Amino acid sequence: MTGKFIETPYDHLTYRIIGCAMAVHRRRGPGYREDTYQRDLEVHFAENGLAYVAQKNIEVYDSENGDVLVGYYIPDFIVEEKVVVEIKALRGLDNSHIAQVIAYLAVTGCPIGLLLNFGTRSLQKRRIFPPRNVVEHRVNRQWLFVPDWLKVEQPEA
Length: 157
Hints:
single chain, alpha+beta, five-stranded mixed beta sheet, two-stranded antiparallel ribbon, 7 strands
């Protein structure tokens, strides 16, 4: 009987990342803020020899020509330039969190994402793949960080 697990060339890497997350969750448990888990994961990634970039500002462009900067996505981690890792510390995950990772995959070009939730009794983990038409998912304004200097002043009503 075959399961739903899809084998990829990145399974060994995602397994190592999930192992780090499980070690953090086993030590901390639920109940902390996301930034606490983020710092602990950085330590575990380094101890396990995983190359990562934390909180990288990724430019997001939107317009007919794709030349208008509208803001930045800031994924929690990009590991080995292959895996987007987004962490949460919530009671549960919903489709908006999956959409967030898909948007990050669309702009980074990474082939796989991991959504990790430390806010529950057991670590929740989801592997997420980019959709076939990834271009449609490049701008998700819900997860867009727009710095003050980029905001357009709204006319007073």
